[in-house]
Design goal:
It is a single chain. It contains five helices and no strands. It has helices spanning about 5-10, 20-30, 30-50, 50-55, 80-85. The chain is mostly helical.
Length: about 90
Amino acid sequence: MAFDPRQALREAGILGGPIPEEVEGAFATLTKEETDLLISLKSRIPAMLPEVLAHSLSGGQWNKPEAAQHGFETAMLCACGAWSGSGQN
């Protein structure tokens, strides 16, 4: 029997319910190693990112980046290429 990554992800509790056809197709192309990695991350991610997950699972909304609370302009927070010089030709 051929390896079905979608079935393995369903059995691991990562996929459930109806999902868009495009997503289903993307998961169908995963190798066994990639699938095993996703399954192993399922239990690790909550331990590594508890604050982010707690906020996202509670339905919370981020109103503005934390750096904006320290006086940085929100519009400038995405300009890392400009200040690092990596965006110069």
